[in-house]
Design a protein that fits this description.
Blueprint: H1 2-16, H2 21-26, H3 43-68, H4 78-84
């Protein structure tokens, strides 16, 4: 029962965000059916979005990497002072 409810809660938001029929007609073919609004005006809009995607993926990668393995090995690092302060 828990799996069914979890699946329903995972799929339900996806169904809500689909575009309405009026917005579908205004969107370019690549975004048709998944986005609301008038759509991108020109190719610069696509370039801006892809640049933001690259920046977000870059920061996400390094955030996770440095969260898992911070890499501070120096005995004089500030974390050593805080952790060893008695």
């Amino acid at each position: 029962m828990k799996k069914i409810l979890l699946g329903a809660f995972a799929v339900l938001p996806a169904l809500i965000v689909f575009a309405c029929p009026v917005c579908e007609k205004q969107q370019p073919e690549i975004l048709r059916g998944i986005a609301h609004g008038a759509g991108p005006e020109d190719n610069w809009d696509y370039m801006i979005v892809w640049a933001m995607v690259v920046i977000v993926l870059f920061t996400l990668f390094f955030s996770v990497k440095w969260l898992i393995r911070p890499g501070e090995r120096s005995q004089h690092h500030i974390k050593r002072f805080i952790l060893n302060n008695e």
